[in-house]
Design goal:
With about 220 residues, the protein is α/β, with parallel strands linked by helices. It has ten helices and six strands.
């Protein structure tokens, strides 16, 4: 039986994803067992393949990394998730902590630090890039296994997981027909979700929904 740390990589940029595969293959103690190009695929593959660590980007289509992490933690609380992102602003860091992720490494980290981050979260501890802990203090006390699995970890005005999913797609510019096709639901159901979202958030047009989604991390702009 292999004692390597198995990793699933979730990133929508193929060249970056393949680069991570190549980088991690240089470490004899790590094995990449899957690649996902969007948040929904990441959740499905993680639950099926059961990797030791999911290396999760924040900016992904269909489901962003925050929503994907929250879903994984709800379905499999013991799943280790390490966020790897270029975003280091305060709000994203706070939302990553609330999502239940076990760590947050910035994309400008060195290969050696990334290996350390993977080993750290695999061992059950939390890891945050030094520049983040220097600004935020003890992030580990608020993240990972300490998160309350029964609490909605993300902002969203009381939106359900499916409503946040629909809102993300609206904010990404998808039509209701395209949203219906991607989520395997009817256009009428998409309309119903959209109306419910607007009522809950007290918003009345698409532009306001897009602004809300960006401000609250439901859609994350790439860097």
């Amino acid at each position: 039986m292999s004692d390597k740390i198995t990793v699933l990589i979730a990133d929508d940029h193929t060249i970056l994803r393949r680069g991570l595969v190549s980088l991690l293959s240089l470490n004899q103690n790590i094995e990449v067992i899957g690649e996902a190009e969007d948040g929904r695929s990441a959740v499905e593959m993680a639950l099926r393949l059961e990797p030791d660590v999911v290396l999760m980007d924040l900016s992904m289509p269909v489901l962003n990394g925050l929503e994907a992490t929250a879903r994984l933690k709800k379905e499999s609380p013991g799943m280790k998730v390490l966020i790897l992102s270029a975003h280091d602003n305060d709000e994203y860091v706070n939302q990553v902590v609330r999502s239940g992720a076990n760590g947050y490494a910035l994309k400008n980290t060195s290969p050696e630090e990334l290996y350390t981050a993977i080993r750290t979260v695999h061992s059950g501890r939390t890891f945050f890039s030094p520049s983040l802990t220097g600004r935020f203090g003890d992030l580990s006390a608020m993240s990972g296994e300490g998160a309350d699995p029964g609490r909605d970890p993300l902002r969203g005005g009381g939106l359900t997981s499916r409503e946040r999913e629909v809102l993300q797609l609206i904010a990404e510019g998808e039509t209701h027909q395209h949203i219906a096709d991607r989520l395997f639901i009817s256009v009428r159901t998409v309309d119903t979700h959209t109306n419910n979202i607007m009522k809950k958030l007290n918003l009345h047009d698409t532009a306001s929904l897009v602004t809300y989604a960006i401000k609250n991390g439901i859609v994350i702009l790439p860097r």
